[in-house]
Structures are given as structure tokens and as C-alpha cells.
Design goal:
The chain is mainly β. It has two domains: 29 residues; 142 residues, no CATH class. The chain contains two helices and ten strands. Strands 1, 2, 3, 4, 5, 6, 7, 8, 9 and 10 form a ten-stranded mixed beta sheet that branches. A hairpin with a 5-residue loop joins strand 6 and strand 7. The N and C termini lie far apart (56 Å).
């Protein structure tokens, strides 16, 4: 039994090593490996799962590792430091508490700066969709505010979307 398992594992690894990114998934076609669009100066907006979305409010909580965990509500939902998990479609990400640009590409997932959108479908199923590529730019950080913007693309045909624009995050203490 072990011999069969080892054979199948070796065969699978050999086949995977021979694949290019385009062979693995249709998501890699048409964008991955390239940079996301330049960040717009407009308020954060775009589409999530093909539905229009615009930012309402952003709050962040400093984690033990010093990262800021950000929740951004949209389409009229107001969140605050006492309740920071939106019920409607929302955006979540973590960044260091310093001015810099952070990028993410599904081909290089180890840097950890992906943007996730969370939404509930018509069957009340909760979905977390990770961006295929993103650029987060933090332009200002103070004790109670972080200012910046991002551009993110979601290339999955079943959850298409793109978000782009600027935000101001209230840092919760």
C-alpha cells in the first residue's frame, strides 16, 4: 500500500512540476503576474461578485503582532470600534502600521497582503474571496488614523470583481 501511495505521489509531483501557471487554473490567464491598476483618487468603490459596492466606513484593530486588521463596510452599513465585523459585503485585510506600498499576487502568495471580500449569497452562505492581485498603499499613519488606498482584482469567473480607491481607517484602541 505504501508503495502505491509513493508511486501516485511521485507521479503527481512530476506532473505538477511540468505544469505552468496557465495549465493549473484559468484564473492565471489575463492578469496574474502583472501589477494591479494604479490606485484611483476616488473613494473606495467597484464591484464585488459582479454587484456595485462603495465604501461606507473603515475601522482597524491593532493585533498582537503589530499588524492592523482592517474591516471596511460598504453600501451604507456603518461599523465602529465596538462592532467592526460588517454584516453586508465587506473588505478585510491586514497591513503593518507604517507608510509603504504592499502588493499581493496569487503567484507570490507568501507576502500575506491579500485583500479579502466577504459576502453572503442568496442561500445565506458566507463566502470569503481572496484577491488574485492587489496593491495597498498606506500614505499616512497616526495614533488614531491610517490613510491610504488600494486596487484589487478578483479574477474568479464565479466571483468577479475589482475594487479601487482611497480610504481613511479609524484605529480602534
Amino acid at each position: 500500500m505504501k508503495a502505491i501511495f509513493k508511486f501516485v505521489l511521485c507521479l503527481s509531483l512530476t506532473a505538477l512540476a511540468a505544469c505552468t501557471a496557465e495549465d493549473v487554473s484559468p484564473l492565471f490567464k489575463g492578469g496574474l503576474g502583472s501589477k494591479p491598476e494604479k490606485i484611483s483618487s476616488q473613494a473606495l468603490q467597484g464591484t464585488m461578485n459582479g454587484v456595485p459596492w462603495s465604501m461606507t466606513r473603515a475601522v482597524g484593530k491593532i493585533q498582537q503582532d503589530g499588524m492592523l486588521l482592517v474591516s471596511i463596510s460598504g453600501n451604507g452599513e456603518v461599523i465602529n470600534c465596538n462592532y467592526s465585523m460588517p454584516l453586508k459585503p465587506a473588505v478585510l485585510f491586514s497591513v503593518p502600521m507604517k507608510v509603504a506600498d504592499y502588493d499581493f499576487d496569487m503567484l507570490r502568495p507568501n507576502n500575506g497582503y491579500a485583500i479579502t471580500w466577504v459576502y453572503t449569497d442568496v442561500q445565506a452562505q458566507i463566502h470569503n474571496v481572496v484577491s488574485d492581485m492587489a496593491l495597498i498603499s498606506i500614505t499616512s499613519v497616526s495614533a488614531d488614523r491610517m490613510i491610504g488606498g488600494f486596487s484589487a482584482k478578483f479574477l474568479d469567473p464565479s466571483n468577479p470583481g475589482a475594487l479601487n480607491g482611497v480610504f481613511e481607517i479609524t484605529i480602534c484602541r
